[in-house]
Amino acid sequence: MSKMNNMYSEKVMEHFTCPHNVGEIKEADGIGEVGSPVCGDITRVYIQVEDNIIKDIKFKTFGCSAAIASSSMLTEMAKGKTLEEALKITDADVAAALDGLPPQKMHCSNLAASALHKAIEDYQNKNNIAS
Amino acid sequence: MSKMNNMYSEKVMEHFTCPHNVGEIKEADGIGEVGSPVCGDITRVYIQVEDNIIKDIKFKTFGCSAAIASSSMLTEMAKGKTLEEALKITDADVAAALDGLPPQKMHCSNLAASALHKAIEDYQNKNNIAS
Amino acid sequence: MRRVYLDHSATTAVRPEVLEAMLPFLKEEAFGNPSSIYSYGREARKAVTEAREKVAKLIGAKPEEIYYTSGGTEADNLALMGVAAAYQERGRHIITSAIEHHAVLDTAQYLGRHGFKVTFVPVTPAGLVQVEDVKRAITDETILISIMHVNNEVGTIQPIREIGQLARERGIIFHTDAVQSVGKLPINVEELNVDLLTASSHKIYGPKGSGCLYVRKGIRIKPLFYGGAQERKRRPGTENVPAIVGFGRAAELAGQEMDSEMERLRRLRDKLIDGVLSRVEDVRLNGDRQQRVATNVNFGFSYIEGESLLLSLDMKGICASSGSACTSGSLDPSHVLLAMGIPHEEAHGSVRMTLGRDNTEADIDYVLEVLPEIVERLRAMSPLNKDNEGEAK
Amino acid sequence: MRRVYLDHSATTAVRPEVLEAMLPFLKEEAFGNPSSIYSYGREARKAVTEAREKVAKLIGAKPEEIYYTSGGTEADNLALMGVAAAYQERGRHIITSAIEHHAVLDTAQYLGRHGFKVTFVPVTPAGLVQVEDVKRAITDETILISIMHVNNEVGTIQPIREIGQLARERGIIFHTDAVQSVGKLPINVEELNVDLLTASSHKIYGPKGSGCLYVRKGIRIKPLFYGGAQERKRRPGTENVPAIVGFGRAAELAGQEMDSEMERLRRLRDKLIDGVLSRVEDVRLNGDRQQRVATNVNFGFSYIEGESLLLSLDMKGICASSGSACTSGSLDPSHVLLAMGIPHEEAHGSVRMTLGRDNTEADIDYVLEVLPEIVERLRAMSPLNKDNEGEAK
Ligand SMILES: Cc1ncc(COP(=O)(O)O)c(C=O)c1O
Ligand SMILES: Cc1ncc(COP(=O)(O)O)c(C=O)c1O
Q: Is the CB of C243 under 6 A from ligand 1?
């Protein structure tokens, strides 16, 4: 067991305690999922797209506090952005917006941006848009 | 460094603090010495013999508290005894009379009886007595 | 906020009586080096000897069979490495189990990389080593069997006496890591047929920094390291006198109070187990319910991950621990739960709560009030939650 | 009776300020396991980190270069065994000195029995290692040089910076056992050119049960034993938090007070040396008078044996130690004194008095009053005393 808790920023704790945009979007325009149960971390992102803009976004996460906080932060960052803008958000950007994550959390609990990219891809595939 | 001090009996401490018969006998009838500086323990016993009896006995010891106490005790035990009786005193007898000695002290710091035996031998040699 | 400490298997606070016994050996009064011959040293020496008697008594050993170490980890290593080095001419096969603490497991693996063959016997889904499996693993080359007494994660009590009997019949040395059973189960090294036994002070309300290895008279071990003549050259270095004195006092108190205290904790444990099982769905008690130490509870909550559960509990003042990989920095969750055949995602969602002397019935009531809410909240966020998905669609 | 403790090189009492810093980590307040993620654990983790910074600062190292151990002996072993195991492919020759503490000496001898060649460089009659001798001992196979900073028996300060320079030029790893210099001499691992350095808490008014090995970034070491991930896997086992916190506080105080305190002790030391040399005949100061730590006095009294001298001093309330074989259970007196060329019988009659913060000028006056009488009394019993015999005849 380790010592990540005293390394969590206040931002992480805020987003973990009261995560934003938890849930699903029925009949979402795109769904993306990354992670695996083996890693102990699965993040699923749902998006609703209108006029190339992310109108609504929701997530479900099975994972540690860092994973939950990352998902919450990601959805806040992506909402209202164009798909092109949203695709530029990286996992590192999410971590930075959370005032950093402990090193051992970077590789595994910080997958929300990747899930979003997959959701956008899903949307583009469904709508035959070349990415 | 070790723990012998709490193992010393009160008898040992008594004889170490106020040893009996310290010193030399000028023109002694017999002198015996055992031990070596390497071992850190040398005991020399001087005897004065009259009518086959140990009239006077003195010792000098370079050694630890156990060695000094053993010498003191030995001289007390031997004084007034016939040579035959004195030859029967063993190092183990001396240790027993001191209410025991710590195990690591038995082989090295408990040589007084041996020194006495040598002193008696010396006396017998000088006086051509077969032992 | 109420603070409920439920991680007594990780470490415990030093009891006031124990601290009181230690203090003179920290301060001017009696801080001396036990190897010295003057009075300060004598007092320290005497105290170390008395503590040795107390520790020995708790496990039915002779004082001269106790070797102090810095803790359980070092004692486990001394047992395995010490026996391996001393008996390697006789054979190079070691048997241990898949659910040992890392102090045994990693050491066995180290030996496995350095000329020894190691068999890790499996466990049942309930977390129990089977004597038959140990028996089957024995070869002519087997010099050592090391099976823990009580598992630190799921609290299961292993059949030590039977394995010891088997080892004895075959002339094999038998070690048990009893860090989680000392002070919690009656232990007698004769009745249990063990040759070496590990104990740790800070698990029984003694200070950190002390532990011991019991080594049956006649069994040889090589030291882990070299220096002064302390602990009859098996464990050199200035003795940690205050910690040793504290360990002794803690052992004494543990022996005196064991029966009544374990009865009390068993009741609290059962209340906690039954309460959670009846209030929360999709939860499983990890580890055998019968062959279980009085202090251990370990739940697997489906659909959620342990670290976020722990942190949520901590925010409510409840200290627990988890088999989650996310608390260990590695990717795999608890090797113990995996060895019991629990799937990865379920293992990630496990939480251990271990009871101790400061826990009361009110503590358990509080946990039973708080825990179900937290589980519900986290499950609502989880993509694995089947019910949840059903609703959503 | 006055009690004068003059064995500060053996061990010291925990300072009140240090004890105060430790107490919360023993009691309910903050006893947690630093590996846990809940609040109790966080406090412990933070305290361990802060202590690491304090210890690092005292020797001019970075916090992440400090590995806590259970004490000096373990740290010395970790240095020698750890480097030997990690670099054995590069070469199998180790250089150390004839006057090291047993924690280095015996470990080097162990390695000498297990595939390594070990050279023990000699010392001068004043107890000093000569850089030239180290230089001559170097071969293409040399992977490690280990020379202590200050000798524990005679207090001599070794030319560490020069040996470090030499090692660096030859690409050889350099370890110094600084147990007797930390807190007594200014130490900066950069300026001293050392790659590994051993320190021990209980020699600087910290608690027993903690010490550390400084390992320069980039130097590899293999652990002595296996288990949890503590100390970046170099030293597994639940951290001894109270002892670590105490070690940190002790290091901090030692750094703050070193200059003035060592000046004070140097004066007391010189008073004791000059006083004894002028009052007692046939006495020799063992160890160089100039290259000497401020706290050490070591006399050789001809014609008498150390243990009886120690016991006599103890009866007067004075705690000292001795190079006498009679205090070690072995036949040979101190290997340090013998390596300095002192004859056996003289070595047997040596006494070490090491000063510390509780010593006052009045203590020295008392020793100067009592010691000559004791020496005289014991000499009167000695068959080696030439004067004495002269008189008697
Ligand atoms: C079963 C078991 N063995 C060994 C250990 C290691 O003990 P310590 O923390 O005293 O090194 C522990 C505790 O962490 C344990 O639970
Ligand atoms: C020079 C030296 N090295 C190592 C040690 C061993 O330290 P510890 O007693 O902390 O194991 C000592 C003290 O005994 C020492 O003086």
A: no
